[in-house]
Amino acid sequence: MVTAYFQALGKAKSSLKITMLRNVILFIPGVFILNALFGINGAIAAQPVVEIILTAICLLMMNYSQKKEEKLMLKTQAA
Prior knowledge:
This protein is mainly α and 79 residues long. The N and C termini lie far apart (34 Å). Helix content is 92%, strand content 0%. It is elongated. The longest helix is centred in the last third of the chain and has 39 residues, at 40-78. The protein has helices at residues 2-8, 12-38, 40-78.
């Protein structure tokens, strides 16, 4: 959902960052680490754990983006 938000704003790099975070940076190491710690249950739990972490990151990215857009809108309106 957040990737679509960034794509709609023309921010493909932010969308790509989210996709890479989910699939490469968080999920793959998460499976290995949680599997080593908790066995098969850890491997199964990796996806929800990654999604929770990614949700927090996406909320921060959206908040930053919205504040940046608001500043740009105010600057444009003032000119």
